[in-house]
Amino acid sequence: xxxxxxxxxxxxxxxxxVIEHATPRTVTEGDRAAYGSLYPTRFAxxxxxxxxxxxxxxxxxxxxxxxxxxxxxxxxxDVSLNAVANLGYAECRFHRPVVPGDTLSTxxxxxxxxxxxxxxSGVVYVRSTATNQRGxxxxxxxxxxxxxxxxxxxxxxxxVIPELAKAVDAKNLIVPKGLDFSAYxxxxxxxxxxxxxxxxxxxxDHVDGVTLTESEHQQATRLWQNTAKVHFNxxxxxxxxxxxxxxxIISLARALSFNGLANAQLVAAINAGAHxxxxxAGDTVYAWSxxxxxxxxxxxxxxxLRLRLVATKGRDESMTLRGEDPSTGSGQAAxxxxxxxxxxxxxxxxxx
Amino acid sequence: xxxxxxxxxxxxxxxxxVIEHATPRTVTEGDRAAYGSLYPTRFAxxxxxxxxxxxxxxxxxxxxxxxxxxxxxxxxxDVSLNAVANLGYAECRFHRPVVPGDTLSTxxxxxxxxxxxxxxSGVVYVRSTATNQRGxxxxxxxxxxxxxxxxxxxxxxxxVIPELAKAVDAKNLIVPKGLDFSAYxxxxxxxxxxxxxxxxxxxxDHVDGVTLTESEHQQATRLWQNTAKVHFNxxxxxxxxxxxxxxxIISLARALSFNGLANAQLVAAINAGAHxxxxxAGDTVYAWSxxxxxxxxxxxxxxxLRLRLVATKGRDESMTLRGEDPSTGSGQAAxxxxxxxxxxxxxxxxxx
Amino acid sequence: xxxxxxxxxxxxxxxxxVIEHATPRTVTEGDRAAYGSLYPTRFAxxxxxxxxxxxxxxxxxxxxxxxxxxxxxxxxxDVSLNAVANLGYAECRFHRPVVPGDTLSTxxxxxxxxxxxxxxSGVVYVRSTATNQRGxxxxxxxxxxxxxxxxxxxxxxxxVIPELAKAVDAKNLIVPKGLDFSAYxxxxxxxxxxxxxxxxxxxxDHVDGVTLTESEHQQATRLWQNTAKVHFNxxxxxxxxxxxxxxxIISLARALSFNGLANAQLVAAINAGAHxxxxxAGDTVYAWSxxxxxxxxxxxxxxxLRLRLVATKGRDESMTLRGEDPSTGSGQAAxxxxxxxxxxxxxxxxxx
Lengths: 352, 352, 352
Description:
alpha+beta; 12 strands; homotrimer
């Protein structure tokens, strides 16, 4: 019998099944430096131990997305090695900051299945949970992905589609223990804007762009132990090009959003995310944000902004998310505008 | 009002103005490793904690240039986002070693202004100071830069040109607390040459060359949170090429200088620096040094060499800094020889 | 006299000579992260401090190959700067895990010499030993390399060819202090296969491939302070291409071998190694392994597999090491099959 991992196919999943993913991984200060060399991040909390301490955090957290990418990467060999496409995320919450020394492990429960009408593939819904070495939940999220069938003749499972919230309810947001923005240093953080300065519906063009290089996206993706071969092996795709990991675009866009959202220090939740177009080395990526909601929290001086973060190939100063759909002229959801790479809906914590 | 940072233009600066730069940044062992993957550095003090302890240092410092690049990078969004050119450095001193765990913040005072006769731009002189989390000065330096005017009709400020030393006086050099080279291990350090072995006027061809790659210069520059878009975005320049950050060439040349200057362990001061030509991925960079001065210090066994460090595109075994100026045939300063990328004047500490 | 290092030529070596190599280097968590960004490694022991503790290790070791590359890199300026070719390794043993904070130094003793019949070069045999800051042996190995003569008229030394073991004897394998696999978590480690599941003669195709990029192999090689110019300088070779450091292929193949050998957690010894063909950026590297031997050890639950690890350019599902030699049709050793880059013989520790 082959000793290598063929990955799971659609018919290998059952609702209720729990998968413990390999391998646990310890986060270190080396990850913080590597992240800083790969993304133009400047948020003061993950950048500065002194700033983090000044806002009440006992230890110096790394960027939430470092934890997310590591935790997510673990699910790839079991969940999406035979994926056609990653379809969406929901209900992702960051339960406590990840700090150097933490070891993350991830497990997933299958919470839904729906075979496609073509009989060749199906959608698998999983809820994944990353815990630290003390067994405390660090991050959890739902994700659904279209996976090939190994055997097209295999019977279709009963269709189960989980109910997933369109967005994490503001009252369910988790603020890190001790976080206190009441003596927040806006000068050190780089911008004067606080919660009340952002209007719902406001759009912010983050101005700066970064041209993707072949080595950088691979180094980032490899750092998360993500093994999807399309990112690393030019022989794995008919076009001979390495596809950029979607999470690379998330991190890049989040870092670019510093310019205009410098005080949106911490990611508290990811409500939804769509990778709307593939990206490749040579593409120049820009970002813009739209304010979707703003709320206060119970923590001193801490508010939350719900933001849509959009990454584009080439700068779109008009910040257009969707084109008009000429066939309907109606209220129907139109297609994403050309150039849109990512549409991410998340909550960030910001001084109130 | 736009929430993004447009940077300062020439008319935004006033003499005496103090700018506190964002964002503080903690130095880690991850930075040491990243630096070692990007530059061929082998100086024994930053390479080895055991060697550093053996020469009296309480903690294991990182390369001085790591501190310098981080501290410098913070000034970019406020001082040089709208720069035409970086014109020079002076009076840069390293006041104490930067060690992992230190958080650096930078502030700058405007110490001079001179509008150009064309009325389109002007020269801004700043003195910048980087402090650690205890408020102690880590590095300070003067720098002048040519900055665009936003509005050409804006009135010219009174011209103030600061007096800056041509070189840091040897008696003002700062030797790190505890440094003692009296039991220095030349074998471990890699070369037998001490202070007295270097003659003023001597030139050293460092032999080795490194071909610049697109990813490496960007990773380095990003690590320092330097946001100048010309380094990262091929759409930011008419030629569609990413300009290599001048500091990348400084670090590369300093690392190459190990071969012949292995015992020039610590950078104590930077007297002057000129980036004389742009560099791009694909260029192969070599370095040579000229001994400008040599002195003893009060610290046991510690001498100081004043060195000119020259980086070139392509190897120049003749080590020619300036071409003959055919139009004058006189003592006038001639232009830099073709291929010269960097002319840096600095003080290094070396066993006496 | 020139202050730069010309390296040693064949006639500079004498049997019995001991060379202390520069420069000591401290291993950090930054190296672990850098390694993880450059190689797709997922072995649970170096990945997770918690897993390492669960198998009895007091501190969290880095990959053995990090120690090996650092220790090996130190020998390059003295032993192989003027090498024609690296010919082989033998008797490499890992005496104790290398952990962050350890400072490695290397010395070499010349144990053999044989001038080539052409009088232009000769083979130098050295035994190198890397010690930590406490003077404890971390790694030792023998290596032989063909080195140019400076002066072809120099007299040939007496030929001395050391006796080197074809493989480290199983009874001489060193198991790290405290290692105990009796409560090993196969789920966390990623595969169910233990010692008894591997048959001598069995071959494992590791399936995945990685396309080499220019920046990544250079960053890796530079991290080990390996200064061989052919890796970094396109002007150093007539074909204008950077040769990939052979150790980069070793690390890449070892990481790829996770898929099928996930429980081969620790490298205990390297018996032999040949870099059979050069590799360049753009090549896509795959790996396969052959089980050469399997033994139990005295440590609880710890077995050892002797493995042949083969890296290839392009995937060879037939896993052919050597082509038939048409000129003989006999039992004579035939040439390596086209595409074979590396043939490495090593011992790994695995749950029994």
